[in-house]
Amino acid sequence: MSESRTQGPDFIRRFANWDNFLAGLTVIVVVYAVAGVDNFASAFNISQAIAGISERALIVLPMVLLIIAREIDLSVGSILALTSVLFGLLVQSGMPLVFAIPLTLIAGGLCGAFNGILVTALGLPSLVVTLGTMALFRGIGYILLGSGSINEFPDSFLDFGIDTLGNSPIPETIVPFLILAPIFAVILQKMPLGRRIYAVGGSPDAARYSGIRLARLVFGLFVTSGVVCAAAGMVYTARLANARANNALGIELDVITIALLGGISVFGGRGKLTGVLWALLLVATIRNVLGLLQIGGDAQGTVIGLLLILSLVASNAAERVFARARLRKFDIKPGK
Asked: What residues make up the domain containing 154?
């Protein structure tokens, strides 16, 4: 076989995939926004856009692991709101941040553990469980604080919500994501735990017979989701300088959209964080552009919902196109 013929399939195999398609689409949208939308490229707007995606960026990390393992957590927004309320109450009681922060993270972990126990010990579907706890956790937030809010926090905490890194437009609220994202990427792609997560999502029965402790793994993923949601709750509280039970309404739609748009298979067992990062940038850009065009939150939610549906349809169609292109390079007919 000639050199050009061997290089052809390698090129197609390397570049004909959803991640690269999504990267190209994101670049096109960003270029359009820079060239065609007033004030998009200003330092202030870039800082606001990055800050606005901080909580979603955090929560999507454990969500990716859950979906790959054939689970889902619809209660992420409610855990964020409840831990925001708990953090506000702890600070209001006079507790120093050095104690309030870890206690809030523990509370988030307990919420995740509650989800995990219902899913693993009782064998209930995570979709149904977290749909119920989505209402339960937010309801507890309303019981604790009512419809009011807590707005008084230490200056050091509020500074975290508004300061940027040095003279750059990058807000400090994105720092927790920048720390956790590489850790999650290494776990998922390079460590045995990541291989076990893929194995569980690919075939739970086969994973169980191979010696993987499914219940412990899934339980750990839900606890991780709860802890990260609690961190996102504190980031949200610092950014908006308030703690209330209706914080982050509907954020789960954005998080799930980012994960699925990023190429994470809704059937589990497939996907990487690379595509999710591109999807995160794409959704952040779209929301920011819609805001600059004076399009309200309800309309933005409609766009994100449509994007979720289109991502499912487009990713499936794209995989077929890329697969056919690769097969054609090998002179293999589909189905053979």
From this structure: 22-329
